[in-house]
Design a protein that fits this description.
The structure holds 2 protein chains of 2 kinds.
Chain A: H1 19-23, H2 27-36, H3 39-58, H4 66-91, H5 99-116, H6 121-146, H7 150-169, H8 179-186, E1 188-189, H9 200-226, H10 234-257, E2 261-262, H11 263-281, H12 283-293, H13 295-300, H14 305-330, H15 342-352, H16 364-383, H17 388-415
Antiparallel strand pairs in A: 1-2
Helix pairs in contact in A: 3-16, 4-10, 4-11, 4-14, 4-15, 4-16, 5-6, 5-7, 5-14, 6-14, 8-14, 9-10, 11-12, 12-14, 15-16, 15-17
Chain B: E1 4-15, E2 18-29, E3 33-37, H1 44-52, E4 61-66, E5 69-70, H2 76-82, E6 84-87, H3 99-103, H4 118-131, H5 147-160, E7 165-169, H6 177-192, E8 196-200, H7 204-210, E9 213-218, E10 221-227, H8 235-242, E11 261-271, E12 278-288, E13 292-297, H9 303-310, E14 317-325, E15 328-330, H10 335-340, E16 343-346, H11 350-354, H12 361-365, H13 370-373, E17 374-375, E18 378-379, H14 381-394, H15 411-424, E19 429-433, H16 441-456, E20 460-465, H17 468-474, E21 477-482, E22 485-491, H18 497-504
Parallel strand pairs in B: 3-8, 3-9, 6-7, 7-8, 13-20, 13-21, 16-19, 19-20
Antiparallel strand pairs in B: 1-2, 1-4, 4-5, 9-10, 11-12, 11-14, 14-15, 17-18, 21-22
Helix pairs in contact in B: 4-5, 15-16
Classes of the chains: A mainly alpha, B alpha/beta.
């Protein structure tokens, strides 16, 4: 198409056309942009830092001690894994209430095979993930292809899979797992490069992560410049890498002074990275956001809504299986009541992390921060010896306020239209 | 003065950027049936919303006299209080409640103990049903009744409120002929009982048979008021009042040189998804490369239904008919198949069906063409931004950047994003449903220019529009659609607003 647009008389040329190139390499404007661009997201980070600082003060620094940081990670790893799947479900405009029961069922399956029948730990892991897959296929079928609201399907699943857990376990707890199995959630990689009062290997991994972050950030930056898109000024870029690097290294330093690098942290990091990129860069991820943002428009743009919805639930099932393995490994056994209320923690993590109740908005990283906010609060209050009942009240209020903030934001955005 | 029940004088209602009503006057005599006619978007519904208080006093200028008294309604309750009841095209009944419960909803018949007196409720409901000629048990859930009977329940509900002025907005649009006839009979009987009615309708034969007076509205102004009893007013006479709109929008020049036939639709029939009627009935049409074909039709004629059912069966059920692309039969049973076959459909309701309003321009532009931007399922987001940036430039989308949220753009710019999306999908045939609805004149001109560019590039374009001048200014050929049927096909040279409107209001043959 070579013909140019002719404008009706009296209409001014588009002034904003040159705006993006003006914004190139201007440091001041993008600091502000960085802060205001996504208030919802940046607000969460600010809140996270504030909560960490608050509890560090309230507990005289105990909450930031090497041992405690390690503990928080181990204790909440399975919630974070569930939250990865949950945020995808929520972005697509659905909900999954069954994940707690699925954690119990998959853990129980594994325990029966490994503890009762003495099979190798790998068989237990694969079986648990396989059961999670089956659960996902089952729920995905009802939600996507029969069209029953996910709330109902997964509420039914919550009962169904809890019942099956009791059947599989014959109403008793199974314990203990062999050491190999326990290592998954409680083990550490340390001493591989020798220790000098701290674990060198952990620090090396931390350093590699920082280097990876810097390199990928730099490559994105180069690509953006090649495509003539605005980028932050170079000093700001360096400052960002140094800032993130400092936090990661401080974190690695603390871990190195405790027991080294937890194995679950590696599992978690791989999952966050994989799902974060999938949601941001894959066609599948785009389709999830499109469906959640406007289902009809997605459908009329050629998205196979049923298929995408189906795989979202299959994925949730598989991740519930992974969480089931981690939880059974962590608790060294399978109990009929395992995983109770986990679904609520995972849902809360996604919403506190900025996911929208109406779908279409939310990120994996946001859900992780949301989950960690809950984790740091619970842990901090435990350290302070706050009563369980008060803890529940505080967590409930935090969830309510987070969603109220989201609703308020949306109303403001709506008024601006 | 006293023989007028309702007088509306110099009503002017402005929406941001648009004058919906300008100095409109309406005088309804006591005990008459008064029809209001006009094209889609002429301002009929807006006028009725002003009258019923949906737009409260103060949001418009002009005065309303009801029964000689000036009225300042601040809500629909106020207008109902004096006896003005409006029945909308989309019925406002609760399907799971019984007929009696619906009739007295918000107006419950209570006993001395403040609880609902069910015996009285059902007995009074039965009387009201009798007076509208509906033989149904008052305890039947409304959802079990057909649309025609639901319409009667609505009227019974109005009667329960001691209605003095009954307003019916397109009451027969969804009814078959028997039900329509029944409804019109009822209106005549209500008239004998002294109830004044205003009826808004596109069906001119009904108007000529029932109305005592007809007011014609065009572009938010009163054109004329015709006394239907005095002189012999024909349908043609009303049509002349409804159209005759100035060709005020300018259209960019275009050389018309259509090539080979790109799409042919044969014997296309679509059933309404929930009701027992055909939304599209045996339609056949074709479009050639480099040609703009228009589809003209009034509200409810089945224009959008025709377009969406062709576009991957996204509307209706039991669709039958054949699609040919360049002479070869194609299958387009899903939207992705339709897109793969080079079809594109830009919806009339961009907010509801066209855009992800919470996302940015970039992701909306790429939504239908992600496969072109991805390899092995991974999107090249830099390429995506580049593509969006190109669209923004070439279509002149006024936004600070492609990362701007689409929901915050103006209507015209949103429409350009919708067009960008489909242009990027690179179709051979574009169906544009009301491409200029709700956007200002300048943006309209730009949309026309974009359409011309598409045609110049050899695309086939089908434009659906309620604005006849727009169709006349844009199209090489125009099909007229009435009640789901194609009632005529005119070339640009043959077509006038009058003969199009005649085809658009043409009676369907009675073969159901």
């Amino acid at each position: 198409m070579t013909s140019s647009v002719t404008r009706p008389p009296g209409q001014a040329a588009d002034k904003s056309e040159s705006a993006p190139s003006d914004a190139l390499h201007t440091g001041t404007s993008d600091v502000r942009q960085l802060l205001t661009r996504n208030l919802r997201q940046s607000g969460i980070y600010v809140a996270f830092v504030a909560i960490i600082a608050l509890f560090a003060i309230l507990t005289d620094g105990v909450s930031l001690s090497p041992g405690n940081i390690t503990n928080v990670l181990l204790q909440y790893s399975y919630i974070l894994i569930l939250a990865i799947g949950m945020v995808i479900v929520i972005v697509s405009g659905h909900i999954d209430l069954s994940v707690g029961s699925v954690v119990a069922l998959t853990g129980a399956t594994s325990a029966v095979l490994v503890i009762q029948h003495g099979m190798p730990w790998t068989v237990g892991v694969l079986a648990a993930i396989g059961v999670g897959l089956l659960v996902g296929l089952w729920q995905g079928f009802w939600v996507a292809y029969v069209g029953i609201p996910a709330f109902i399907v997964t509420l039914a699943g919550m009962l169904l899979f809890r019942g099956l857990t009791l059947q599989v376990l014959d109403n008793i707890s199974l314990s203990p797992f062999p050491p190999d199995y326990q290592r998954m959630a409680n083990g550490f990689l340390n001493g591989l490069l020798g220790g000098y009062g701290y674990d060198t290997f952990t620090l090396v991994i931390g350093a590699l992560a920082v280097v990876g972050y810097a390199v990928s950030g730099f490559r994105t930056r180069v690509a953006r410049i090649r495509y003539q898109q605005p980028v932050e000024s170079f000093p700001l870029f360096v400052a960002r890498v140094v800032g993130v690097g400092a936090v990661v290294m401080a974190f690695a330093w603390q871990l190195a002074h405790a027991r080294g690098l937890p194995i679950v942290l590696i599992v978690l990091a791989v999952l966050i990275l994989a799902y974060g990129i999938t949601m941001k860069q894959s066609v599948f991820g785009r389709q999830v956001y499109a469906i959640g943002g406007n289902l009809s428009a997605a459908q009329l743009s050629g998205v196979n809504v049923k298929k995408v919805t189906f795989w979202i639930f299959v994925n949730m099932g598989v991740l519930s299986g992974v969480a089931g393995v981690i939880y059974s490994s962590r608790s060294n056994g399978a109990q009929p009541a395992a995983g109770n209320m986990f679904e609520l923690d995972a849902i809360a993590a996604a919403f506190i992390g900025g996911a929208a109740v109406t779908g279409g908005v939310g990120t994996v990283v946001g859900a992780m921060v949301g989950g960690l906010i809950m984790a740091v609060m619970s842990n901090g209050m435990q350290l302070m010896g706050v009563d369980q009942s008060i803890q529940a009240v505080v967590k409930g209020l935090v969830l309510l306020l987070a969603v109220a903030f989201d609703v308020y934001n949306k109303r403001r955005a709506g008024a601006a239209r | 003065m006293d023989d007028h029940l309702l007088t509306m004088r110099s009503i002017t209602k402005t929406f941001p950027g648009v004058k919906a009503l300008q100095d409109v006057s309406l005088a309804v005599r006591r005990g008459e049936i008064h029809a209001i006619c006009g094209e889609n978007g002429a301002g009929k519904s807006t006028l009725m919303k002003v009258l019923s208080g949906v737009y409260p006093a103060g949001s418009y200028t002009g005065e309303i006299l009801f029964d000689g008294n000036p009225c300042h309604f601040s809500g629909i309750r106020d207008s109902e209080h004096v006896g003005i009841v409006i029945i909308h095209q989309e019925l406002a009944l609760v399907p799971y409640l019984s007929v009696a419960e619906n009739i007295f909803l918000g107006n419950e018949r209570r006993g001395s103990n403040r609880l609902i007196d069910w015996n009285r409720t059902n007995a009074e409901a039965a009387q009201l049903l009798d007076s509208v000629g509906l033989r149904e048990n008052p305890v039947t859930p409304v959802g079990q009744l057909g649309v025609g009977k639901q319409q009667l329940v609505e009227i019974a509900k109005a009667l329960s409120k001691d209605v003095r002025l009954l307003i019916l907005d397109e009451p027969t649009a969804a009814l078959n002929d028997t039900d329509s006839e029944h409804l019109l009979d009822l209106l005549r009987r209500l008239k004998e009982r002294g109830i004044t009615s205003i009826i808004i309708s596109h069906k001119l034969n009904e108007i000529t048979s029932i109305a005592d007076t007809t007011t014609v509205i065009r572009d938010g102004r009163t054109v004329e008021t015709l006394d239907m009893r005095a002189d012999e007013v024909t349908q043609e006479r009303i049509i002349r009042g409804m159209v005759g709109r100035d060709l005020d929008s300018r259209f960019p020049e275009r050389d018309s040189s259509p090539g080979e036939e790109v799409l042919r639709v044969e014997d296309w029939t679509v059933w309404h998804p929930t009701q027992d009627r055909k939304a599209v009935d045996g339609a056949s049409l074709s479009v050639r490369a480099g040609e703009v074909v228009g589809i003209a039709g009034l509200m409810g004629a089945g224009r959008t239904e025709l377009a969406m059912s062709i576009f991957g069966r996204s509307y209706g059920r039991d669709i039958s008919g054949r699609l040919y692309k360049r002479g070869k039969e194609i299958r387009a049973r899903s939207v992705s198949e339709a897109i793969a076959n080079g079809l594109a459909y830009a919806t009339e309701d961009r907010k509801k069906y066209g855009l992800n309003l919470i996302e940015d321009i970039r992701r909306n532009v790429s939504a239908a063409g992600l496969s072109k931007l991805s390899r092995y399922g991974w999107v090249n987001s830099h390429e995506e931004t580049k593509v969006a940036e190109e669209s923004r430039r070439s279509l002149n989308i006024k936004a600070p950047a492609v990362s701007s949220i689409v929901g915050k753009l103006s209507g015209g710019n949103q429409q350009k994003v919708v067009l960008s999306k489909w242009i990027f999908a690179d179709p051979d045939i574009l169906i544009l449903d009301e491409p200029t609805r709700g956007i200002d004149v300048g943006a309209k001109y730009e949309i026309y220019t974009i359409i011309n560019r598409l045609v110049a590039a050899g695309k086939a374009v089908i434009v659906i529009s309620s604005e006849l001048p727009e169709l006349l200014g844009l199209c090489d050929r125009i099909y007229a659609l009435s009640a789901g049927r194609i009632t005529g096909e005119l070339t640009a040279q043959q077509a006038t607003q009058e003969n199009l409107m005649e085809l658009m209001t043409k009676e369907r043959e009675l073969d159901r």
